[in-house]
Design goal:
Number of strands: 33
Number of domains: 5
Radius of gyration: 35 Å
Bound molecules: phosphoenolpyruvate, magnesium ion
Structural class: alpha/beta
Helix content: 40-55%
Strand order of the largest sheet: 14-24-23-16-17-18-19-15
Number of helices: 37
Largest sheet: 8 strands, mixed
CATH architecture of the largest domain: Alpha-Beta Barrel
CATH topology of the largest domain: TIM Barrel
Distance between the termini: 41 Å
CATH class of the largest domain: Alpha Beta
Oligomer: single chain
CATH superfamily of the largest domain: Phosphoenolpyruvate-binding domains
Strand content: 15-25%
Low-confidence stretches: none
């Protein structure tokens, strides 16, 4: 027909036309499973209903009548027949699931006469009246719009009158009384009882159509970005009723084809004897675990198990199946892809692959990158947590501790001084976003899971608890209260974005336990990936974590911190302050010896994998005392009449090194050229460590990387005048040698535009997209987030923060230019990326699209390595 299809006629894949729920019924029908016969009113009819100003389309009811005749022929029951009544459910269901957002009416067709037919059919007058009183309440609420309490109150009264606790215990008389009371409600309001089954059916269809546009359904679509292209309107399935409340050998239940919490491959679910669908959801009575069914009705269990597994095999996804048993006969009522815990999703993909149900590619594509991230967030150590102070909504996962601040500007100020803060607000606005970046977590006292705070926190990956209503915040005094407990600004609190709990003080967190499937899965991902994943790791701890997470080497080892370690900073300051190259070399020799120890440790952990060590990068002034403080000290000494010549010299030197734009100043290779001893000392430390490990039989792949290069001559000078002679010196001293690679960072615009020249003199290049983004936009990477970025995002000037996700039209395009130029002269040159973008899923997607295999690897911070492995694999397929 034009609007109506039978389950046998419909195409289960045309979900847009018949809706998800009906599609599942059609599929199960095709699979030969016992599905109650049904017909579908397509979404087209609902669309026309709205296009015609909420009027049923011409001819629709004629088709429905024909469809019902078809059901009558198939079942032998007849709508309105007092002897053998056909009863149907009228179900909503759009192309995508909108759980609980639209309406469904059950038991349509019941009235004072047909209830006896039903009683005869199920051989149970009590069961029939139970269905009848449910129908009246549901029809009254959904179709006639009568408040639910009007039906619940008499129900409670009847239970009290007969002294029973649970609904099925109400005696037949009680049910009959209830039916009369309900009919009186209808009469009071509408002057009639709506006992014509055809009228019931028509009104129910209209109610389903209407529920598509209910405020909650509209809100849900908006919140979940369900556009008309995705789901246009609801379809309506009219399905023959079966009765889980026919007797005690009847039941209704829900099963998952695997455990949705753990992924374990066993039927998981529950059922409720003598009940209809809503009773399970409503949680009025406690259902029985599905294992019990195996004991009580082994044949039904067997049939259920086989059916559920057959659907799973067909859909290649874990299924969430609703079923009903009527007097010992099983019926499948609905199936859908199960919502599972991320860990369970991952285990299931691995298991299904091993079982041969899905291909490796399907396994890899079936896990969302967010799931991997979620699995890695630290969790509250429950054994040490104590009682939470209060609870809110778990809005963005992860557990963190920080000092409470009640104002986004203060959050920025505090974080600049190195404090770890949690932004606490009643609610947040777009103007507060700089505070999110500055905070480790966000806590609000108002708003829900889709509030501004929740959405932004998830978007930028900050744990968040929102709507903790017990929290009373006073911005004026910078104090929050929960009952008698006071949180002052600066007090430590801990929030758990998994559970919504808020704790006073610092609660220890623990690393999540990762199942073996986690690692197995990522190994599968690697096996299809055309990209390698390395890690940005500066310390032995970083290196260990990176290895555990499967990094294939270090793509960026920043060496700056090696100069700041205790006992070294003073030495290094002397180097900077000395204008005698001989003295500088001597001091640096001592430093080289110390740094060698750091390299030994990290290299050993990364044995067998490439290790990319970047030579000194930051501006020198970062290692000197603070200028303002020095001025104060010198001035004070002078006013006291006791000038300090030592301090005066230091001040003069600090002043001489000061720069207006240090990030574009004397740093990186420019330091290497003006203070070649510094780079020489680093090369010496690196190669000595490598040779000592070689002596111990370790195999090392050392890559030395030079930062901030803009002109190929810079590289030539460093390579020929510093790196090579130093290497010769070290090799001679050790009486041994080692091969190593020399490369450059690509983080200035000019290096990208001259990449062909640069490629000729290096073995590898690695894009430093942090600096490159700074350079391409001329945005200061250290200031942008606190100043104008949030406004830019709010106004849509930029679609996203280019320091988080790579700018496709500018930065990625420039990378493409550089890569093409480099490969035109050296096709096999190794090219990677080591900016923060290397661990950002969206950036990996963009780069895979823009430069594809032009890149060999992504280097990500240690905790981003797993997600980078997955996304790189997904982008390889
Ligand atoms: C970069 O600029 O992208 C980079 C990796 O170097 P850093 O962040 O240390 O400047
Ligand atoms: Mg850089």
């Amino acid at each position: 027909g034009k609007y109506v299809l039978t389950f046998e006629e419909a195409d289960p894949d045309d979900v847009k036309l018949i809706g998800g729920k009906a599609s599942s019924l059609v599929l199960m029908t095709r699979l030969g499973l016992p599905v109650p016969p049904g017909i579908i009113i397509t979404t087209r009819a609902c669309r026309e209903y709205y296009d015609r100003g909420e009027k049923l389309p011409e001819g629709l009811m004629d088709e429905v009548i024909r469809g019902v005749k078809y059901l009558e022929e198939k079942t032998g029951y007849k709508l309105g027949d007092p002897d053998k009544p056909l009863l149907v459910s009228v179900r909503s269901g759009a192309a995508v699931s909108m759980p609980g957002m639209m309406d469904t009416v059950l038991n349509v067709g019941l009235n004072d006469k047909t209830v006896y037919g039903l009683a005869k059919r199920i051989n149970n007058e009590h069961g029939a009246y139970d269905a009848y009183r449910r129908f009246l309440a549901m029809f009254g609420r959904i179709v006639l719009g009568i408040p639910e309490e009007e039906f619940n109150k008499p129900l409670d009264e009847i239970k009290r009158k007969y002294g029973v606790k649970e609904d099925p215990e109400i005696p037949l008389e009680g049910l009959k009384e209830l039916v009369e009371i309900y009919k009186q409600i209808f009469i009071r309001r509408f002057g009639k009882v709506f006992d014509d089954p055809w009228e019931q059916l028509k009104l129910s269809i209209e109610a389903v159509f209407k529920s598509w546009n209910s405020p909650r359904a509209r809100f849900y679509r908006e919140a979940n970005k369900i556009t008309p292209e995705i789901a246009d309107c609801t379809a309506t399935a009219i399905v023959t009723m079966v009765f889980g409340n026919a007797d005690w050998r009847s039941a209704t239940g829900v099963v998952f084809s695997r455990d949705p919490a753990t992924g374990e491959n066993k039927l998981y679910g529950e059922y409720l004897p003598y009940a209809q669908g809503e009773d399970v959801v409503a949680g009025i009575r406690t259902p029985k675990p599905i294992e019990k069914l195996k004991e009580e009705m082994p044949e039904v269990y067997e049939q259920l198990y086989n059916g559920v597994k057959l659907i799973e095999k067909t859909k290649k996804e874990v299924q969430d199946v609703e079923f009903t048993i009527e007097k010992g006969k099983l019926w499948f009522l609905q199936t859908r892809n199960a919502k599972m815990n991320p860990l369970a999703v991952l285990k299931t993909r691995v298991d299904m692959y091993k079982e041969g149900m899905i291909t490796k590619e399907e396994a890899i594509m079936g896990v969302k990158p967010e799931y991997i991230l979620q699995m890695l967030y630290p969790r509250i150590d429950e054994s040490k947590a104590g009682k939470p102070l209060t609870k809110g909504i778990a809005a963005s996962p992860g557990a963190v501790s920080g000092q409470a601040v009640f104002d986004p500007d203060r959050a920025v100020e505090w974080s600049k001084t190195g404090k770890q803060v949690i932004l606490v607000r009643e609610e947040t606005k777009p103007d507060d976003v700089h505070g999110f970046y500055a905070s480790v977590g966000v806590l609000t006292s108002r708003g829900g899971a889709t509030s501004h705070a929740a959405v932004v926190a998830r978007a930028i990956g900050r744990p968040a608890v929102v709507g903790a209503e017990a929290l009373q915040i006073d911005y004026g005094t910078r104090i929050a209260r929960v009952g008698d407990t006071v949180i002052k600004e600066g007090d430590w609190i801990t929030i758990d974005g998994f559970t919504g709990s808020v704790y006073l003080g610092k609660v220890p967190t623990i690393e999540p336990k990762l199942p073996p499937e986690f690692f197995e899965f990522l190994d599968m991902a690697d096996s299809v990936s055309v990209f390698e994943i390395r890690a940005n790791a500066d310390t032995p701890d970083d290196a260990t974590i990176s290895r555990r997470f499967g990094a294939k080497g270090i793509g960026l080892l920043r060496t700056e911190r090696m100069f700041r370690a205790p006992g070294r900073l003073d030495l290094f300051r002397k180097v900077i302050l000395s204008d005698n190259p001989g003295e500088r070399r001597e001091l640096l020799d001592q430093l080289a010896e110390m740094m060698k120890k750091d390299f030994l440790e990290i290299f050993e952990i990364m044995e067998g994998y490439p290790i990319t060590v970047r030579l000194f990068d930051p501006p020198l002034h970062e290692f000197l005392p603070n200028f303002e403080e020095l001025v104060t000290e010198v001035t004070r000494a002078r006013t006291l009449g006791k000038p300090d010549p030592e301090k005066e010299r230091l001040l003069a030197r600090v002043k001489a090194l000061m720069e207006a734009n240090p990030m574009m100043g004397h740093r990186g290779v420019r330091v290497g050229i003006t203070y070649p001893e510094i780079y020489a000392a680093q090369v010496k430390a690196i190669l000595s460590a490598a040779l000592e490990l070689k002596r111990r039989g370790k195999h090392l792949e050392i890559q030395i990387m030079i930062p901030q290069v803009a002109e190929v001559r810079e590289l030539e000078i460093i390579i020929n005048n510093v790196v090579k002679p130093t290497a010769e010196e070290v090799f001679k001293a050790y009486g041994d040698s080692i091969e190593f690679k020399i490369g450059t960072m690509m983080e200035t615009v000019r290096s990208c535009l001259t990449a062909d020249k640069i490629a000729k003199v290096v073995d590898f290049m690695s894009f430093g997209t942090n600096d490159l983004t700074q350079a391409v936009f001329s945005f200061s990477r250290d200031d942008v987030e606190n100043k104008f970025m949030s406004k830019y995002l709010e106004l849509g000037v930029l679609p996203y923060d280019p320091f988080v996700t790579i700018d496709e039209e500018g930065v990625a395009k420039l990378m493409k230019v550089a890569i093409d130029a480099a490969r035109s002269v050296k096709p096999d040159i190794e090219i990677g990326i080591c900016g923060e973008h290397g661990g950002d899923p969206d950036s990996i997607k963009i780069l895979a699209k823009v430069v594809g295999r032009g890149l060999n690897y992504f280097s990500a911070s240690p905790y981003r390595v797993p997600v980078a492995r997955l996304v790189a694999a997904q982008e390889s397929l």
